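Two proteins, back to back. First:
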Amino acid sequence: MPLSLPDLCDAHPDEVRVVEPIFRDFGARTRFFGEIATIGCFEDNSKVRERVRTPGEGRVLVVDGAGSLRCALLGDLLAAAAAENGWAGIVINGCVRDVEILREIELGIRALNCVPVKSKKRGEGSEGDALRFGGVNFTPGDWVYADENGMVVSRERLPVDF
């Protein structure tokens, strides 16, 4: 049986950084992990739209929307594209929408909350930068692990069955 996050934290206390428990679970997959890819954007999901249409290769897309609760950075269409392209999960420091459909998509999705308003499309944002929210740094190439107990970040892939 795979380890849970409490087991992972107990076995590797010096390797993991615990993300503050501020995120809600929205996807069909409540347990996911993968190498981190990052996007920074504010109320504009153009970069998210571009990235989920590329091969995910089992990675987790971490999106820093600066904690905005005014519009969603992910909805059903982009989540479906991410799942189809092999992304393991998406973590959003912001909101999602279409939650009744997100629950059916085989993708790990964590966000602060949901809101029915779509984001602007101005083509703004950045990719590949180190991000900080939830009390931890999310650096491209690091690994994120998530299950029903929360999320942790590690600099390297941990040698465990998760």
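And the second protein:
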Amino acid sequence: MSTDITVPQLPESVSDATIASWTKKQGDAVKRDEVLVELETDKVVLEVPAPADGVLEEILQEEGATVTADTVLGRVAEGASAAAGDAGKDDSSKDSAAPAEDQAAGTAKAEAADREDSQAGDEAARMGPAARKMIDEHGLEPAAIKGTGKGGRILKEDVQKHLDQAQESAPADKTPEPRSAEKEPEPSASTASAPSPAETAKEAGVKHEPGERPEKRVPMTRLRARIAERLLQATQQTAMLTTFNEVNMKPIMDLRARYKDQFEKTHSTRLGFMSFFVTAAAEALKRFPDINASIDGQDIVYHGYCDIGIAVSSERGLVVPILRDAETLSMAEIERQIRDFGARAQDGKISIEEMTGGTFTITNGGVFGSLLATPILNMPQSAILGMHAVQERPVAVNGEVVIRPMMYVALSYDHRIVDGKESVQFLVAIKNLLEDPARLLLDL
């Protein structure tokens, strides 16, 4: 009996999707609820699970195809065994006069093959496409890698950490060997994951002979095309301006150094800078409601809550999950949610609902070394806060020149809603709250 693998109902704002990758080849054994297909929309990556135990009998839609809800992607033959397992069972049943021990050996061979197929399915299900690609490229054993994702899922960072540890522990004249001396096969079209923009750019820069001018043309991913569309829309349809200031990070850094161990022990999460900025932004948004507003046609919508989006970089591009009611969250809750977003973004596991809405956005280019930049609005929001790298600089304090860890901050805003005076005062409020964290507790 065959069961169809179909595209699930897509979110209301998504009309179609592109097949990013198949995690199995035709003829492979599959387990019910194991991820078989990854679909890329212009916002998130959706996973399509196997509808039943059996064998992937047929693939009807190849990678790169555009599909809509209820499209049949392939079929699973329920209850069937993989080719290796069936071969073992057939061989053991061909000769009815075979000795009992030979029949038992054939049965054991088939069961072992089924166990291998099942184990391979389990391994594929517990890792994202990026992690799977790295594991294949380096010839690693998934069982040897500790997954830190939800449910023990292996993330790209886990694979990189495993490689780093192996390199550190290996002798200087010896590098870790792959699990097989034979050359690993290249990922097939049905198993390779969609390349990231960085991977695509790297591949485009292939070596060439002097005098040659090679080029490589690749289609934009759905997410990259959507990002381009949104950024262009923001620059063309808003009166966007940016104001700048700088923050002395020493008070926060001293506070963090003093309490980070106790904070982690108490709340089971690390204390970073983002929770300070989110808390300060939520407080400043309450004081300046125009910054927390948006334009809807001829109306201005004032939001009585602070849904703050946190820009997160992923292999497929930038995503902005939302911290709902950020003004009510503790710093520990903020840190936990942000770290969860960061981990799931790498596997494309953030849902559309988690990225829908938002009244204000914070983006941190400082993690990549950016010293100063102008962030672009996340429409229809009226403002976005840009954080940057912390750098020691000479500053004047009480008439003396001292060295302090300083961060430039930028606020881009829609001048149709926000006046210059309010934008400057808003950024100064954030600066004051961060430079004197006690104000956050005392509501000053």
